Amino acid sequence: MDNKKNIIVGTAGHIDHGKTTLIRALTGRNTDRLKEEQNRGISIELGFTHFDLNDELRVGIIDVPGHEKFIKNMLSGVCGMDMIILVVAADEGIMAQTKEHLDILNLIGIKNGIIALTKCDLVDKDWIELVKLDIADEVSGTFLEDAKIVEISSTEKTGIEQLKNEIIRIVNTLPEKDLNSNPRLYVDRSFSITGFGTVVTGTLISGTLNLDDEILIYPANKLTKIRNLQVHDNNVDTAYSGQRVAVNLANLKKEDVPKGSVLIPNNTFTESNIIDVKLKTVNLPFEITNRTRFHLYLGSGEVLCRAILLENEELESNKEYIVQLRLEEPIISKRNDRFILRLFSPLYTIGGGYVIDSNATKKKRFNNFDIEEIKNLDNCSFKEYIYSYVDRFSDRFYLEKNYYNFLSDSSKNISKLIDELIEENRVVSFGNNSDRLILSDRF
């Protein structure tokens, strides 16, 4: 059994600033995988590779596209990253896509990163110092504010060891992976292999997947079994949260599992057309008013929605808001899932944030009671969050197992907290185990 610790590192930055070249210097591999990419010299799709940093640490690399046209592909890659390397070319400095990538990474909740100043062999020291000052100004107030800037020449391989050492330093500060929640894998590639069938890849963002597990493909709602599992080209019996995983699925066509699909155990999530969210805006060159239409990016998926501004007539730059998103197609999501919003047209990132209530009901604008209820959900413990759901749905006479779907957490954890609520006389139950009827004390 391979006991190496696995982490996922992403590279981001403007087109032609040397992301793919840097990865080749780090790993000895080229992540560009399409003939079109090789011919054009740019990354269009996500690129993937890995390398062993030392005897204990295996690093999976995701190279996200830097061109503005391919920002959608970039968004599908940031889910599940442990850290980011923001690549800035010393001869050009901060550019448009550097800024948009930085905004997206900040909004999506990335906490750790390094700044790689590439192509340092092309400019003199004085210029490098000026570019560093510009970078420091741009990342001020973001998760990269205190990040180390590593000077690199990928062609001469200077700075590569310093970059590796900084990755190791950050890894030692990372929290343990979430292995106890329900497994969830967002598909970022789907293809067929002759003799094997359909294979999908993605980052397992929680839980574990096992050989022969029965899983649900959403939104196709097809049940299948895991025929084979690979992590970094090696066959495994179990894949763990935080790993890049390839999953061979039984009796499915690749069209059944397109990019943006989700692999989950059956009966562990509930789909919804309405979610309440905390939205943080970036610099807005346009007026954003109630019911503006957006592209919502969550995981590797994309869906159109309209934003209901519950507290305001319009959105202003660099502020936080409680917003209800009404989706044109249902999705599955979970409390604290991160998302990005881009205008329907023109395509422009206006902000992002996290889910507060993944199974929300329609709210009226400027209703103080509704707004306060959402804010309470945002700030409460998971036990109080469970109680709010039981209180809301008691008139529907749901069983405990129904709340496993609504709350999308492990049945063991939810059951334990429901027991605590029963002991506190805030919840009453009838029956046993997951089939017991759960009602609020106010019902």
Automatic annotation (TrEMBL):
- Could you tell me where this protein is found in the cell? Cytoplasm
Has the keyword Cytoplasm been applied to this entry?
Answer: yes
Keyword presence, Glycosyltransferase: no
Q: What GO MF annotations does this protein's record show? A: GTP binding; GTPase activity; RNA binding; translation elongation factor activity
CDD domains assigned: SelB, SelB_II, selB_III
Q: Which residues form a coiled coil?
A: none
What does the record list as GO biological process? selenocysteine incorporation
Task: List UniProt keywords, sorted A-Z.
Answer: Cytoplasm, Elongation factor, GTP-binding, Nucleotide-binding, Protein biosynthesis
Signal sequence span is none
- What coarse category fits the chief subcellular location reported for this protein? cytoplasm
NCBIfam families hit by this protein: selB (TIGR00475), small_GTP (TIGR00231)
Cited function? Translation factor necessary for the incorporation of selenocysteine into proteins. It probably replaces EF-Tu for the insertion of selenocysteine directed by the UGA codon. SelB binds GTP and GDP.
Which protein is depicted? Selenocysteine-specific elongation factor
Species of provenance: Parvimonas micra
Q: What is the lineage of its organism?
A: Bacteria, Bacillati, Bacillota, Tissierellia, Tissierellales
